[in-house]
Design brief:
Radius of gyration: 30 Å
Oligomer: single chain
Strand order of the largest sheet: 7-6-8-9-5-10-11-12-13
Number of strands: 27
Number of helices: 13
CATH superfamily of the largest domain: P-loop containing nucleotide triphosphate hydrolases
Largest sheet: 9 strands, mixed
Strand content: 25-35%
CATH class of the largest domain: Alpha Beta
Helix content: 25-40%
Shape: elongated
Amino acid sequence: MPDCSDGTATEEIELVASGIPELDELLNGGYVRGRTYLVQGVSGTGKSLLGQHFLRAGLDREETVVYIHGEESRDDILVNAARLGIDIQDAEFLDIGPGTDFFAEDRSYNLVEATEVESERFTQDIKQVIEDVDPSRILVDPITQLQYVERDEYQYRKRLQSLIRFLRDRQVTTVATRTHDRSRTSRTTHDDFESLSDGVVDLYLDERERRIAVPKHRGLGQVDGTHGLEIRDHGIEVYPQTIPKHGDRTFDPELIPTGHESLDGLLGGGIERGTVSFISGPTGIGKSTTGARSLSGVVEDGGTALGYLFEESIDQFVHRSEALGLPISEMRAQGSLVLTETEPLVRSAEEFDQHVLNQVDEHAPDAVFVDGLSGYQTSLQGDDRRLVRRLHGLTRVLKDRGIAVIITDEADRLTGIPEATSTNTSYIADNIVFLTYVEVGGELDRAIGVVKKRLGDFDSRFHRFSIESGAGLVIEGPFDNVRGIMEGSSTRRVPDGSNRTTNES
């Protein structure tokens, strides 16, 4: 692939694996051989670890790699990396920190004198090491250690430019780390190094979650936005945003029945393949039961379904559903229903999305059930804007595969005029089934109705319903001549045909 990013020359691009396949996705294939990359973030974000993955990937390809370090000793680095399953003991090490200085096992380079720093000698010694070893990859951890041997920022920048050109001429791929100062507000030489680098990887960490972004990748471009990142027992895991790809999919309007005659009647026969259905309503109204009834209908019709539980355990969901007459255990045993219990505080939204798509590839389901949206929102730390973007991406990918998506969503009030969905996600929904409490004759009753359906006809009336042991969802007749159900307090039309109303109570 030609690279004309500088507008003057054309060269063939050779990609270099970062050691994290999902990061390579964000980099549109990986690092570019001979280029320099900056990995930056506040302390504890995983900068060194990301660089160690990079070195390990080189060792796996029998490349020579060099670890230039200045804050930790070689022994400490090896121990900490091994704890996360990363073996880099075959790397060549160069310590540029004050105190102990060594390279490999049998050679020592006195890079930092206790009494005097000789910057020119420092640079030349590094170049000499590189010439002696001839590495394919170098990790400089951190690059700011080099600043300590220069008398000012101008000289530091000149040294950096010289070093970067030297490494590029030798086709050495370099990853350098840098720790952000949370309090830094003014521009410094650190910002200059961003401009000198061919690519930048930003790592974020706060009290809520870890994130990763690639704001710059010269020549290849990058996947924009922030993405999920986790540090697990085996190192760093990256979870890119789910971004739908616009294809030439032909929409299939085939209806999938819920298996419940009255509910199918409300929906005009069922839900279509490749649509998103919200089951919305206040707490305790019966949203999960309605969703479980829909899953059961999919399986009864010969299909396969996946269910993701944010609000209760699998055992509790199975017990409650079977008490209502739904054979969930039997469906699971025959492999037609796969349930996953999800803890939103442990798994990020991007990680959840990837898990869903992996299972979709494995099971090829007809329907996916997410119970409930508030748990998914918790995995996004309550960020409503990100919720809409992430949910749009996931549901769009599922729709493009012809999968019916069913999501339960909790309204924020028991009665009164609520929003159709809790977080401005109603535009995502093709169908909205709304469940609510309504006062009728001084008593609290339950009402169910379809308030949105993009495709086909549906029953626009609200119906009484109940949740009964052994029978599950029981939908009764409509609330004839009754208004105000959405407000929570009903009124009845006067039978003379006028527009006058009277309090139902």
